[in-house]
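step=encode ok
step=design start
structure_in=
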């Protein structure tokens, strides 16, 4: 097993090779091992106006509109369980994993410095790394996927993590979840296993429920049951420009909706806690609702027409919660959301929350 400093120096040579257009070849990950067999799970379809689908000009992440419509209308889905990848003897240097058979890329965003490699790094018998490439880049994937992967191995001393990005809400959630991620930039092990929980399954839903219960127990007080909250995007979120923001917020406030800006630690989380309906623009920051929304509550997603995506619906249905979608209309500088459409969808979600058996 090479010393971490030797491997770090080889990475610097790789940078030179890339400059000379001789890029380093990273290996593909081996066949994953699923946590369980995939089953078909019954779920609730999304609430939306089919006539408004014509507003969509582009879908996010390479998805097609027909595929997303199928997901919104589905009354069941096939599970995608947590998977693990066994890489054998390995040394982790930031976002690069070195093994006897080659190197693997976990994240190009986690960069190791020379001084990180100079300290003595003991060789562990086995390490379970609970990071995903997505979770090291997007806060929403960390909060909804990597946190679940950690929970699958709660209490296991083998669990490790690369240093997480400097997202302001990481520390409050780790405290509320009671998770110690043991973050390390350099790791050496005789057996490396990577755990990824990027899909949806019944076991993942159980982990979500455990985290939701623990968060409430540690908060010590309940939130405002029955309230409706509009979760505005925080300063670190990617921009989603609602051109008529002032009009929309005023109409919602006049209707009794509480308006909260994402980010801000435990006070912010408490402001969302046990809301019956949470409204947010599609994006990573809507994952706060995953843990704050009351049981049987509803998520209302304001969808940009030029980046239409429905990840929020997938995790909401995984927890048997309601999911409503209002699609915006393209406008100069962003998109417009019709306040009347939002208010009507709020009424639908509130009515269904009083009747858990209704579709």
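sequence_out=
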């Amino acid at each position: 097993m090479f010393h971490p400093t030797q491997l770090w120096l080889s990475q610097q040579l790789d940078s030179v090779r890339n400059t000379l257009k001789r890029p380093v070849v990273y290996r593909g990950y081996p066949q994953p091992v699923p946590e369980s067999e995939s089953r078909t799970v019954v779920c609730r379809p999304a609430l939306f106006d089919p006539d408004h689908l014509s507003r969509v000009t582009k879908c996010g992440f390479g998805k097609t509109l027909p595929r997303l419509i199928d997901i919104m209308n589905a009354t069941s889905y096939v599970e995608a369980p947590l998977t693990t990848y066994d890489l054998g003897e390995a040394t982790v240097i930031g976002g690069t994993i070195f093994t006897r058979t080659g190197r693997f890329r976990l994240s190009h965003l986690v960069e190791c410095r020379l001084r990180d490699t100079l300290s003595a790094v003991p060789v562990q018998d086995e390490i379970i790394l609970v990071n995903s490439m997505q979770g090291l880049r997007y806060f929403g994937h960390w909060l909804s996927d990597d946190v679940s992967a950690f929970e699958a191995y709660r209490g296991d001393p083998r669990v490790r993590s690369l240093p997480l990005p400097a997202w302001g809400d990481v520390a409050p959630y780790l405290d509320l979840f009671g998770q110690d991620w043991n973050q390390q930039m350099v790791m050496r092990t005789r057996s490396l296993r990577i755990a990824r929980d990027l899909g949806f399954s019944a076991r993942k839903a159980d982990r979500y429920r455990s985290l939701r219960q623990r968060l409430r127990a540690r908060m010590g007080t309940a939130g405002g049951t029955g309230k409706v909250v509009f979760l505005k995007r925080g300063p670190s979120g990617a921009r989603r420009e609602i051109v008529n923001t002032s009009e929309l917020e005023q109409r919602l406030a006049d209707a009794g909706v509480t308006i909260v800006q994402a980010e801000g630690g435990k006070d912010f989380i408490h402001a969302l806690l046990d809301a019956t309906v949470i409204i947010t623009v599609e994006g990573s920051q809507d994952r706060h609702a995953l843990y704050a929304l009351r049981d049987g509550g509803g998520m209302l997603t304001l969808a940009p027409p030029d980046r239409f995506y429905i990840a929020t619906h997938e995790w909401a249905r995984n927890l048997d919660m309601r999911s409503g979608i209002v699609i915006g209309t393209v406008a100069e500088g962003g998109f417009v959301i019709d306040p009347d459409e939002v208010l009507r969808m709020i009424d639908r979600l509130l009515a269904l929350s009083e009747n858990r058996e209704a579709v």
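step=design ok
step=annotate ok -> Residues 83-198 form one domain.
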